[in-house]
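[09:14] KT: can someone run the structure on this one? pasting the chain below
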Amino acid sequence: MLQNRLIQQLSLTNFRIDNFPGWQIGLVLIILILPVIFSKVAQAKLSQTVKAEELAARQYVSWMNRTQQAYYAERAEFTDSLDNLGLGIKPETANYKYSSSTENQAVFNYGVSQNANFKSFVGGVFLIENTSQKILCQANAASTTKPANPTNNNGTLACGANTVEVSHLSPTVKASEADETEGKLYVGSMNKAQQAYYAENGEFTNSVPNLGLGIRSETANYKYSISVENKAVFNYGVSKEGKLKSFVGGVFLIEDTIAGMTTATILCQTNTARMIQPANPTNKNGTLSCGANMTPVTR
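[09:31] RB: done, structure tokens below
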């Protein structure tokens, strides 16, 4: 390689700087510096990815905790089925596996990393007298190993070995990022549920409960609603907080010459935090696009 050849030349005992033309010296410097620059860029991108993926996993396990409490209040038992929780969380994503395990008077909810760069999470919900209490823990180090279960010692909850309690968001993570994860997840799940509803019933629905996701029409941060139009349905997650972005999902009927009528989805978020219903996405000859002042959500 040119890099190796030039470095070998520079290593010669009779090396003199004036033995090399200026362009060759410049080339050597570029070759030596570029790998350092690319390495720094790669590390920065990895750090951003880790933060986003860990934030999502932490939110998912937190929601699993809260939903287990609601499930117990309604049925007097916990569940080890993600589907029963109605959150629309897939058991496995590119970077995490999600599961629940019921034990005597407790249930543990896991978000186990499948990537050695990411930390894992475990949530515990315990029956204490006539109430349920929860705790959320994070592994101290990145690992693909299932974290140790938290414990209940006479009503005092504690994280297990090599884990730490997530009592509040990291100072490096904005609270709005976590809250917006709810809106993105819920509206994305509504899109998928509308596709399943159409496949089963031959029509879309304008009822959030009909989707069977267990999503409330209103939470602390968002209002969720649906609008059915000609050959399309729009699912909204409209922010109730001035610091949060809003979301809209569109599910369109697309005519396919081979498969017949199919559905296609798009998920969009407002470019800035706003508390008004976002513009609907559009379908132009099978090409879906976000509306004005909106950006596609790719994951």
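[09:33] KT: thanks! Residues 100 and 109 are 4 Å apart (CA to CA).
[09:34] RB: yep, looked fine to me
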